[in-house]
């Protein structure tokens, strides 16, 4: 499964971008907020949700882990597919959507095209308890955009993502991955980095 991509922006349109990664063009659907950050010819990095269905494989890209985590929660809600999930994330920042969910603010959601009152209420009810667990510890401010883009290779990014998914705080996970990279070098694979990161965490707990 593809979890992260770094490449050159070949073109962008509406809610889609193509990245040239090692000579291969990846078509990635993204929220409008991500499109606005990208420019043709620049090097871009995106966290990827890789969906495999009977009719093909689809990539959805996000600027932060928190944004991707929210997308994954959204598409678990009945009646919310990837297209509508991207629409919602185009209309809300991560903090804004989390706040709307916590406050059960359906009025904010129904302002978006394609979101009716029943859909908004179902989404808010379904996500009320889940968002705290899945997103609260993975926010863009904790990761920091500059820090999330420091690693030049995929393995450190995947290790960082794995540690955060295991409920380590993003700031702690980033420090552990940094330390693991210093021990093993940036060419180390993901599994080795995670192993060393946990070893360092255990040493620090003693």
TrEMBL record:
Molecular function terms from GO: ATP binding; four-way junction DNA binding; four-way junction helicase activity; hydrolase activity
Protein localization: Cytoplasm
Gene Ontology cellular-component annotations: cytoplasm; Holliday junction helicase complex; Holliday junction resolvase complex
Name the record gives this protein: Holliday junction branch migration complex subunit RuvA
Main function: The RuvA-RuvB-RuvC complex processes Holliday junction (HJ) DNA during genetic recombination and DNA repair, while the RuvA-RuvB complex plays an important role in the rescue of blocked DNA replication forks via replication fork reversal (RFR). RuvA specifically binds to HJ cruciform DNA, conferring on it an open structure. The RuvB hexamer acts as an ATP-dependent pump, pulling dsDNA into and through the RuvAB complex. HJ branch migration allows RuvC to scan DNA until it finds its consensus sequence, where it cleaves and resolves the cruciform DNA.
A Pfam family: HHH_5
Gene designation per UniProt: ruvA
Helix-hairpin-helix DNA-binding motif class domain: residues covered: 72-91, 107-126
SUPFAM superfamilies: Nucleic acid-binding proteins, RuvA domain 2-like
Source species of the chain: Suttonella ornithocola
